[in-house]
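To the structural biology subgroup,

Please find below the input and predicted structure for Cytochrome P450, which we are adding to the shared reference set this quarter. The sequence is reproduced verbatim from the submission form. If anyone notices a discrepancy with their own records, reply to this email rather than editing the shared folder directly, so we keep one authoritative version.
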Amino acid sequence: MATAVINLDDLDLFVSGDPYAAWAWLRENEPVYWNASATGGYWALTRYADVNAVYLDPVTFSSRNGTVLGGSYRSATDTASQQMLICSDPPAHRQLRQHVHKAFGPRMMERAGHQVRTYLNDALDRLSADGGGDFAVDIAPRLPAGLLTAMFDIGLDDALHLLRLTRIMIGYRDEEYAGDSGESMTLAGAQVEIFDFLATLLDQRRRDPGEDLISILLAARTNGRELSESQILYNALNVAVGGDETTPFTASAIVETLIRHPDEERRLHADPSLLGTAVEELFRWTSTNAYVCRTTTRDVTVRGVRIPAGETLTLWNASANRDEEQFPRADRLDLGRTPNHHVAFGVANHRCIGMGAARMEINLLMQELLGRGLRFELSGPIERLRSNFMLGVKHLPVALATRR
Ligand code: HEM
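Predicted structure (tokenized):
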């Protein structure tokens, strides 16, 4: 493959092409790659060691300008900068994270696990009775719905409403979710609606506090000072988007992966004690959050390539997780793989705060699939999200497998 044909902004590559072949070429030939684009271009790091090293140095590689290309929050003057976890640097980041972290405590996770199990079982009962369905629509969203009803202390209808809005935020370039008003208006419109929803919740919690995320953030104090309203709203938004738009895409990608690797699927069904390593291998394999961004705060040299201060770097988790230098036989799915230090959740100070919740949700799903002996086969074409940020399956038509 010639360099000129690799364009990581080309969404067709992610919908109908083979981004893994492109990343393999880049790892081998241009691990520090300048991806020119209409909006100015950015550097792409595709090797595990480089991605890991950048994650570990938040002083040189800042999150202040946001972590998604072309999306919102791509400027230090954006009001989210230094207020929302994902686009903050230390020390503000550390203080915010301590507060948000309290909402992921064991009691909350127990409540969330109970909700996830309830919604998941109902949905799987229906799918089984029907002999199949669209896994990405009928089953996968039940995982974040369960988590967010518990974390925000809201009902199922509100959780599904929030899910529809966060899906537009992440899928604003996909015609299934975008409106007629153009990409930036679609994105802005969804954000406004989410903020309205969260602001209403904030008013209610001020009057009648509970044990939910917003009440926890309202009670938070840093050196005696309360969090500002915008800090509370931005971090509630961060948790809502992080929770809604990662785990369901991962769940669908996992089911697709198992369908495409029947030997490994059989191996797991025959030996459920592999579940622990299997879940981590499936996170490595699916790497739903394809990349995150950082901005250089000074001139740096990576593998002999000089990168000036103020430039955007993309860290391709999905590529790093297939790097042969880190993972022997990286292109082979091995549900017993150990060790498995994948970077699907990032590394260091910004490492996914919802990682435990995501593990809980995916474990519950896998336990149900194994417990019920459920295996699927494809019953129609898979449709992928038009995004290079989220490697998402948005439609996964499946039938209960009969021949394996
Ligand atoms: C399979 C599921 C998930 C994947 C693959 C994933 C991936 C990631 C990654 C790669 C980051 C690091 C971002 C960076 O370094 O800039 C991150 C951060 C974050 N994630 Fe997740 N995530 C998942 C599930 C969740 C869930 C369930 C929640 C919330 C309920 C969540 C909320 C967040 C938040 C708030 C951050 C920002 C943390 C910080 O900046 O300190 N994520 N996630």
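Summary notes: Residues 63, 67, 85-86, 97, 147, 238-239, 242-243, 246-247, 250, 288-289, 292, 317, 344-346, 350, 352-354, 357-358 surround protoporphyrin IX containing FE (CB under 6 Å). The radius of gyration is 21 Å.

Regards,
Lab coordination
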